[in-house]
Design a protein that fits this description.
Elements: H1 2-31, E1 47-49, E2 55-61, E3 69-73, H2 84-92, E4 96-100, H3 114-131, E5 139-144, H4 146-155, E6 162-166, H5 174-177, H6 189-192, E7 200-205, H7 213-222, E8 227-232, H8 240-243, H9 245-258
Parallel strand pairs: 3-4, 3-5, 5-6, 6-7, 7-8
Antiparallel strand pairs: 1-2, 2-4
Helix pairs in contact: 3-4
Length: 272
């Protein structure tokens, strides 16, 4: 009997060590399947210097009537080219929009990594606040799927006017395991969301089979500041906007109007 118990625990230990080894060796390759660039740079394409030495490709779609800038962090298997239509829709619905590509995505240099995603967003935030002179309270972070990891991280450390997450996960590995089973994790949103004091809007599809709905609900519950949510029926991870456009745009507008309103800063009306 004792030998059977020891054999069982030895097998469990071996399986666990195998899981740890696979996560260590293959997690990044599975997490960042960056597609080939869907666009080419234009002569005036912003190239942001990143603290890790990369050049981050970005785009700024200004709306002179906007009260806030939406700093958009796109999801996986996307870049600025594939996100362009969505970004233009935000502008048409009353936002100025700033978006960027992570290292290894689009025409940004470098290789994808968690640290690289954080560094790229930090560069975008610095560009808006230091170069464009936009006050932090006029910046609303928007993180879609993978992008929610960067957005939550920055919002937990820097002042922003608001945070929107769509299809967000508790942490990267918990999308697969549901519970924390490894000694480390990627994009540990659930451990950071409690430090976010900016107002939160959570958007999640109830039929999301990529990042199950419980992730969005638990993240929303763990946020201690003002918060709103939009839970979408009959939609999956990547088609919320197509399935529930009226509700989606209404939710964004209610959230924007709930933020403290001031006149758009002069820097929104002119470039340096």
């Amino acid at each position: 009997m004792l030998n059977a118990v020891l054999t069982f625990f030895a097998a469990m230990g071996t399986a666990y060590l195998g899981l740890v080894a696979m996560a260590w060796l293959f997690a990044d390759a599975l997490m960042y399947p960056a597609p080939p660039p869907s666009y080419t740079d234009t002569p005036d394409q912003p190239k942001l210097p990143s603290p890790d030495g990369n050049k981050i490709t970005a785009v700024f779609m200004e709306n002179l009537q906007a009260s806030h800038v939406l700093l958009f962090c796109h999801g996986n298997k996307q870049d600025l080219g594939t996100a362009e239509d969505r970004l233009r829709q935000y502008r048409e619905h009353g936002w100025s929009v700033f978006a960027f590509d992570y290292p290894g995505y689009g025409t940004s240099t470098g290789a994808p990594s968690e640290a690289g995603c954080y560094s790229a967003l930090a560069s975008a935030y610095a560009y808006l606040t230091r170069i464009k002179g936009i006050p932090p309270e006029k910046i609303v972070l928007y993180g879609h799927s993978l992008g929610a990891g960067s957005a939550v991280d920055l919002a937990s450390r820097e002042p922003v006017g608001g945070l929107i997450v769509e299809g967000a996960f508790l942490s990267a590995f918990r999308v697969v395991t549901r519970w924390r089973m490894l000694p480390w994790d990627r994009f540990d949103n659930i451990s950071k969301i409690g430090r976010v004091r900016a107002p939160l809007l959570s958007i999640h599809a109830k039929e999301d089979h990529t990042v199950p709905f419980i992730h969005g609900r638990l993240l929303n519950e763990a946020h201690h500041g003002p918060k709103q949510h939009l839970w979408v029926e009959n939609a999956g991870h990547n088609n919320i906007l197509e399935v529930a456009a009226p509700d989606y745009w209404d939710a964004l507008e209610r959230f924007r109007l709930s933020l403290v309103f001031t006149q758009p800063p002069a820097s929104l009306a002119s470039s340096p």
